[in-house]
Amino acid sequence: MTRFAERLSQIDAFHAMDILARARSMEAQGRSIVHMEIGEPDFPTAAPIVQAGIEALRDGRTHYLPALGLPALRAAIAASYPAQARLDASRVIVTPGASGALLLIFAALINPGDQVLMADPGYPCNRHFVRMFEGETSAIPVDESTAYQLTAELIRRHWTARSVAVLLASPSNPTGALIADAEMQQIVRTVAELGGVLIVDEIYHGLIFEGEVTTALTYSPEVFVVNSFSKYYGMTGWRLGWVAAPASYVPALDKLAQNVFLASSAPAQYAALAAFSPAVLEEARRRRDIFRERRDYLLTALRAMGFIIPLVPRGAFYLYADVSRFSADSAALALNLLQQAGVAITPGLDFGKHRAAQHVRFSYTNTMENLREGVKRLQVYLKAV
Amino acid sequence: MTRFAERLSQIDAFHAMDILARARSMEAQGRSIVHMEIGEPDFPTAAPIVQAGIEALRDGRTHYLPALGLPALRAAIAASYPAQARLDASRVIVTPGASGALLLIFAALINPGDQVLMADPGYPCNRHFVRMFEGETSAIPVDESTAYQLTAELIRRHWTARSVAVLLASPSNPTGALIADAEMQQIVRTVAELGGVLIVDEIYHGLIFEGEVTTALTYSPEVFVVNSFSKYYGMTGWRLGWVAAPASYVPALDKLAQNVFLASSAPAQYAALAAFSPAVLEEARRRRDIFRERRDYLLTALRAMGFIIPLVPRGAFYLYADVSRFSADSAALALNLLQQAGVAITPGLDFGKHRAAQHVRFSYTNTMENLREGVKRLQVYLKAV
Q: Is B277 helix (H, G, I), strand (E, B) or coil?
């Protein structure tokens, strides 16, 4: 007799994980697969971070740390923001990945039936966190006309008596699109006027190819900003992120963190202290430039083949492509591409419902050599169909 | 304008953390404090585990692992149980600490208004996890007459139409009490008859001073058993635990883990592979014997002073003591002891409501030398009052 909570029927597994598992089992049988389904940088953690982790282990720094995080790391995170962000270390909470940050924020905000506005397409876990706490996601369809992002105007139009918060991601997964500074300022003002809470996911912060890297913290101390060591600093498997929270929420997030996590990983926190060293920052910029080169290559190649990618994505490491010239069912296309061409990509339905069957996501978290091989396979496959 | 979810009013911070923070600030001012408030072994992580962690870092094994955990670690965990437990690796899910395991289980089980039965006193986070998912805790007062544990009879008596699950902990925090095998068998049968789900927290598994170490898995494959590398293997700060789940729940827990955690720490998982090596198991048994020696000393010394501890705790590293001879307000007593005697202990109200003001918890996670000093300070303080 199995007893499942109702929320489970509205929480989905990642299709990307299914694709990955199938790809791995094909590889185990000797097939060659070009991976473009994974949202994880192919680079290892930078050497100085690894070295700091090794030293922490050698020194026995493996005991519990405070629930809010290692004070020196909170200070280093705060200091990594520009002066305009006015971020005091007391507002920085270290979490087990950005996932941990989102969990705390939604646990602190959501009453049953409360609505959170977010863009569709968007990162799938976000709506599941909201559902987990008995809230509802108001998934607002977006397209290239607003750079796949919510705008102040869209937020105002979709706000209801039950709305309590807006979640944005800039750069966005799966589209790599940014929210322009002027629009972000407008959104900050609008959400405040509506009496809501604004949460901005900046986990691809730094992975921006054109223009300046800005943060929503610049525009208000009342915005929640979520970030992570995973993507920019290449620390995915270490599971370490943070949230810059409005001061009034810190005690609530502290007691939630005590109960839910006790603490974030101690070795990871000591290692992350090295993330802001000049050597690592230099390396991170070098990697960003490599991602830019890959984006330029893959974007051009995919467009030439007939994939529709209206905007040049300015950040992250994804291309979100309209595949309607090839298929009306992007999940079937992704599966066929894997099985027949040995190319792994993620179908749009991981990211929502809005035109999901017409889209797929390509991750360029792979070498140029492999990306070229992937493009070659796509060309052969698409000519044959 | 700050917007808090209602659940926050029923989720408390740990008083132990408050005591710890005060103790640390007194230490910073030069005061000497004997720590008996912390639920963390004073031993470092065993050397072979640390070494395995260092090698994982050196080898760049810092990428995401599957949400269910590293297959080799799941297999090693399953193999660490005796044959009678009949635990297949496919039922083992690696989590960020036992906290992560409890989070997944309650997210998978609890609908709003559902009731979970648990003992009062008990571990504070448990009721907060239930509240987080809009469930209710039915806190059943227990005392020495049932070794501070629920019994099949108590469960039957308190079961209502809204009850869905029972959570036990053996050994228990804060009492160190075990559930006898015969009673556990009865409970397994009773909860099944009632149509409920049984969850057994075995995070102090192995830290048992008399009699055999048994697991609730022996009695049914339908029981959730939660465990951790924190206490017995001395890996607190690494944040790594697991749940042995009924087979029918594994896909649900997998998709929840994908969304909530993505994965548990990769370096911690590679390190934990060394936890089951003969050298580490030998070291863990040696540490258990040291804890037993401390228990014997502290139990005798506290009883001689007038603390009432009716039962000899058979496991964990806690003594739960009735202080009614000294005070009717154990929180005030704990604070006075800290400020006037330099002894840090945890007041009963961290563990529930039942006779909480008459109890405190002593942790013997400190050296014999420090425990002796603590006892000396207690003697002086109690004579003076």
A: coil
pTM for the structure as a whole: 0.96
Q: Is the pLDDT of residue A1 over 90?
A: no
Residue A282: CB atoms within 10 A of its CB come to: 11
DSSP state of B41: -
Report long-range pairs for A279-282 (Cβ below 8 Å, ≥24 apart).
A279/A46, A279/A47, A279/A48, A280/A46, A280/A48, A280/A49, A280/A233
CB contact under 8 A, B62 and A235: yes
Q: Nearest-CA neighbor of B49 among B241, B234, B214, B308? A: B234
Nearest to A258 among B5, B13, B238 (CB): B13
* DSSP code string of B101-164: HHHHHHHHHPPTT-EEEEEES--HHHHHHHHHTT-EEEEEE--GGGTTS--HHHHHHH--TTEE
> What ipTM was reported for this prediction?
0.96
pLDDT for the residue A346: 96
* Architecture in CATH for domain B47-276: 3-Layer(aba) Sandwich (3.40)
Q: How far is CA A195 from the centre of its chain?
A: 26
Does B44 lie at the interface with A, CB-CB under 8 angstroms?
yes
Q: Does domain A6-44+280-384 have CATH number 3.90.1150.10?
A: yes
Token pair belonging to B209:
């001073």
A316 sits in the region (left: phi over 0; alpha: psi -120 to 50; else beta) called left
**Residue of chain B nearest A24, judged by CA positions:** B66
Locate the domains of chain A by residue range. 6-44+280-384, 47-276
Tokens of A301: 């190649």
